[in-house]
Fold this sequence. Notes:
The chain is α/β, with parallel strands linked by helices. The protein has helices at 9-26, 41-52, 80-87, 109-122, 159-165, 184-189, 203-211, and strands spanning 2-6, 31-34, 62-65, 67-69, 99-100, 128-131, 153-156, 178-181, 192-197, 229-234. The structure holds fructose -6-phosphate. Fructose -6-phosphate (F6R) is lined by residues 35-39, 66-67, 132-134, 138-141. Fructose -6-phosphate binds at residues 35-39, 66-67, 132-134, 138-141.
Amino acid sequence: MEIHVYRDRDAIGQAAAAVFAAQVLAKPHSVLGLATGSTPLATYDALAQMCARGEVDFRHVCTFNLDEYIGLGRQDAQSYYRFMEENLFRKINIAPCNCHVPNGLAEDIDAECAAYDDAIERAGGIDLQFLGIGHDGHIGFNEPDESFSKGTHLAHLSRMTIEANRRFFASAEEVPRTAISMGIGSIMKARAVVLVVYGEDKAEITARALQGPVTPRVPGSILQFHPRCTVMLDEAAASRL
Ligand code: F6R
């Protein structure tokens, strides 16, 4: 695990975008694993600017997002599909048919999860996965548990995650309680991973995930075992290391 500390969120965004752009330049048909939430926004902005300047070309790139809320459709204002459209897909030259987000309205969730894992396999596996981390140590929607999850599955959001994500909804009651999420096994299969964390409020979980015991009680701690994991922190998030 390589840990880099940056001045602030924008500096991380530039640095993480450079890693993703380098991946796409080296392999135009790259398969990228993407995340939603606040963490990737600076990276997505930087990638959109690089694309507008002609520095990176997403024409052949294929993406798979980590997760989607169950019960929300693509056009729901709070769906992760919509988030991705607004914050990245519409701003870069990627083909919409190459952008994959689990279908939160699938009638058969287990079949949707299996089909998602199959689609990742058929695409050749994820080359580079972007990750944020929750205050309880979750990555994707893999919440603290007794064991590490394997493939894409139906995930239950923890109370802490519902509280953290209510900022995107009118009230905590409106935050869906379940989601489809890639598993820890799916994330660990990615050839390379970039974990981005910023803010003082995540300093403690960052230290536990990066330097504490590897345990499913802190799902992100599994990244200590990933052979190619780059961690990008701002000074506040790194303050308890
Ligand atoms: C998002 C995801 C989550 C977030 C995490 C941090 O697709 O899978 O694990 O990365 O909840 O969220 P933010 O970035 O909003 O603090």
